[in-house]
Amino acid sequence: MRFQKCLAIAVVLLYLRPGSAQSDPVSCASKRQTAESTKLLNLRRKAETGDASAQYILGNVYVNGSSVLRDYKEAARWYSAAAAQGSASAQFMLGYLFEHGLGVSQDYAEAARQYRAAAEQGHAIAENNLAGLYQHGRGVRKDVNQAVEWYRLSAEHGDTTAQCNLASLYLLGRDVRRNYNEAARWFRAAAEQGFAVAENNLAFMYYRGLGVPRDYDQAAEWTRRAAEQGYVIAKTDLGYLYEQGKGVPLDYVSAYMWYSLGAAGGDARASRELKDLSKVMSRKQIVDAKNRASSSAQQWGKITDFQGIEMSGTSFIPPH
Fold it and tell me: What was the pLDDT predicted at 19?
């Protein structure tokens, strides 16, 4: 099992919802298109009068490409108008566009300025992203103390990515004093909100006994929660727990099944473990495991792309 560190960047996009469905599919589509066109026209007119909320929503429309062609330059225009009026959400989104060079020239300093404006109004994701810029010295002088301060504010506002980022700093002890208790505390905060990466990281803490008592049952429980959300790394980790009989019954068939699901998701560790495990299994066991993996793919075979994740390399699966 490996620990996963969360990246600092997060983004929330809002979508305009189409009208409710009608009985006639053809007239339904026509009516929806007309309704959307009218809604967009009214929204634009309102934005052009200087309404900050309408300007922000119109920016979202262009970012999402929900009822118009995606146009980051046009989105930046409307976010800028709303941000100038103090809209924290628009300031955050404008900062995101500057950070990633979407519709504007990439400019970390401007991204930091916009994130700060939103963060100072209590925008949790902006607080997290500003912390990331301080952590890596992008657009601002590198300052881990500032990074920790902004991560903590965001974490206290309930942002799961910030909670995971703060926990990662304390666990790895990079530029801050290592503190396993704080790491476990913040991984748990995010895990209890259902954030799969944090669930798997909390499982790692229980497996190693870092900041919490060593408890294989808890490690297995949190790993399972992450795996059943589609987190590929956790699928492989759960397979390993079944292979070792730690926190779950020793069960090669279940181990093979979870390794298969992990391998299908692209985890190279799972492919290696399958090869080794197959050497100690009977042909009947392997066939049974493959059948279970095939039937379980509908339920647990999904591959969820969790935004803001990077590989860490810390693992309780022994290296090959």
Answer: 34
Query: What are the backbone dihedrals phi and psi of residue 193, each rounded to the nearest 5 degrees, phi first?
Result: -95, 5
The Cβ-side half-sphere exposure at 314, using a 13 Å CA radius, reads 15
- 308 SS3 class: coil
Find, among 273, 318, 308, 301, the residue nearest to 197 by Cα.
Answer: 308
Tokens linked to 258: 């979870």
Instruction: Count CB atoms within 10 A of the CB of residue 27.
Output: 10
Give the pLDDT confidence of 194-236 residue by residue, as tens digits.
999 999 999 999 999 999 999 999 999 999 999 999 999 999 9
Beta bridge partners of 5: 310
* pLDDT band of 248, cuts 50, 70, 90: very high
The pair of three-digit structure tokens given for residue 320, joined into one six-digit string: 């090959």
Between 21 and 127, the more confident residue is 127
Partners of residue 6 on adjacent β-strands: 309
CATH number of the domain bearing residue 118: 1.25.40.10
- Assess whether 126 and 229 both reside in one domain: no
Structural domain including 45 reads: 1-15+34-141
- Report the C-alpha gap between 257 and 297 in whole angstroms: 10
